[in-house]
């Protein structure tokens, strides 16, 4: 992921001025990386190591989403709607 893309995602989802590690930001960064890997895998369907790493990222994002859902349901619903995941 490019540095500028990462900075843009952090600025969009941060909850305070110096926030770079909240669950919201982490989920957004993982989603951006997952979408990037998905487009790579469409072009390179036999790239199994990349597929495996993408599945690890999906599992990590799922854990963070479950954590956020249990801690603050309104933030969970907001980020799911904003990112367009979990229909």
Could you list some keywords that capture this structure?
87 residues, mainly alpha, 77% helix, single chain
Description:
There is one protein chain. This protein is mainly α and 87 residues long. The chain has helices at 3-13, 23-43, 48-71, 73-83. The model has no long low-confidence stretch (mean pLDDT 95).
Form type: globular
Q: Terminal Cα separation, in Å?
A: 25 Å
Biggest sheet layout: none
* Strand and helix order: HHHH
Helix and strand layout, with pairings?
Blueprint: H1 3-13, H2 23-43, H3 48-71, H4 73-83
Helix pairs in contact: 1-2, 2-3, 2-4, 3-4
Quick summary:
This protein has 87 residues and is mainly alpha-helical. The protein has four helices and no strands.
